[in-house]
Amino acid sequence: MQTTLPNYAKILPNLRQEGDLIVDDILKFLVEKNKINDFNAFINQLQTNQDVIHLKNQLEEKGFLAEMPIHLVIFFENFTKIPVFISEKKIQNGHQFFEKYMPALLSMLGYLSLPYCYAGADGAMVLHFSERLGYDTQKRLLETAQFVTDVMQENAFFDASKKGFVSVLKVRFMHAWIRLKLLKSNYWNIDWGFPINQEDMAGTNLAFSWICVRGLRTLGYDILTNDLEDFLHLWAMIGYFLGVKEEILPQNAKSAYWLDNAIAVRQFRPAPHTLSLTKTLLETLANQSKQIPAVLVPSLVRYLVGENVADILGVEKSIFVNMPFGFIFQNQKINTENLQKTLKELFEKEKVEIKLGEKVSGIREQVSGISD
Q: Are residues 122 and 268 in the same domain?
């Protein structure tokens, strides 16, 4: 557990050149031994925590561990061990917090977490080169929501019938595979840092925890600091199982604030690919939005990420800046008739003619994929 505030400005530069050392080495070994396709098939058929309780034994029986260095084998043997810094009580409280605010927290993934990640120009290059996100943002949003739902279920890591360990294992090896492909390609510039490096993974962990709660507070939710820190503790455990170093897994509000600030100062800046990713995301959110009318999506994103980040992402200002977004989120029974009345009053005040549900305009940008 963190007792003193790390010097993030000092440690982040080195961590930017580091991925997930042990899993990266495991993947390289499997590729060298021509076992990667079989291993991928094995990983994909895992369904629940029960399937990974004896992970090392299963892999050994299937021949994956033959000739594998012992320090890599130990990873599979210890994978499901809960780290010593974890408090099961705080973990359960974190799950309960998510359950209480689940609809709003899931909404924050698209309206706030992804835009926050896009603002880090170098880290966003991975997403720019990722064919899956560039061509099908909606699928990526659904997969992200599914992952979060899997790891946020009560006892997700303490119940054999749940999916916590399986989900993080799959994501961790997916990240390693993307790193390997990018480093072997002609696309990646190491000046951007290692693909999916420790700094970017810490930023993503913040995006799903600290940043989401900050979004709720922006919308007017009264979130207690103890609840926030239990939620951070839960995400610290998830980050640990995803391969993030403990020193950049904040478990209190002060550490989260300063890590967020350090990453933003180092990484947030405008770039053509961040504008492209944001345009695609806004269009996708507008097309699938049910709770928020499509025309309000850019304004909501700007409201949540803040003026500075919105300018970095190219999210334009609009007349809807003063919309009661907090009311829309907190009143789950709000209906289209009431919202339309509010919009009508705003339109008449601003003398603007626009239809409720009008889609956000914009051209969907094509994103380069990763070559084999």
A: yes
HSE on the CB side for 249, CA within 13 Å?
21
Q: From the CA atom positions of the chain, what is the Rg in Å? A: 21
CA distance 198 to 206: 12
- CA separation for the pair 46, 52 (Å, rounded): 8
Cα–Cα distance, 138 to 350 (Å, whole number): 33
Q: Give me the domain span that covers residue 289.
A: 8-18+88-366
Pair 156, 298 in one domain: yes
DSSP bridge pairs for 120: 268
Same domain membership, residue 277 and residue 206: yes
| Same-domain pairing of 12 and 62 | no
What beta strand segments (E) does the chain contain? none
Residues 58 and 94 in one domain: no
List of residues 6+ apart from 90 with CB closer than 8 A: 229, 230, 233, 234
Burial of 242 (0-12, 13-18, 19+ CB in 10 A): buried
Indicate if the pLDDT at residue 306 is higher than 80.
yes
Number of domains into which the chain is organized: 2
- pLDDT category at 341 given cuts 50, 70, 90 is low
* Range 90-102 burial, b when 16+ CB lie within 10 A, else e: bbebbbebbeebe
Total-model pTM:
0.86
Does 241 lie in the same domain as 174? yes
Write out pLDDT tens, residues 88-103: 999 999 999 999 998 8
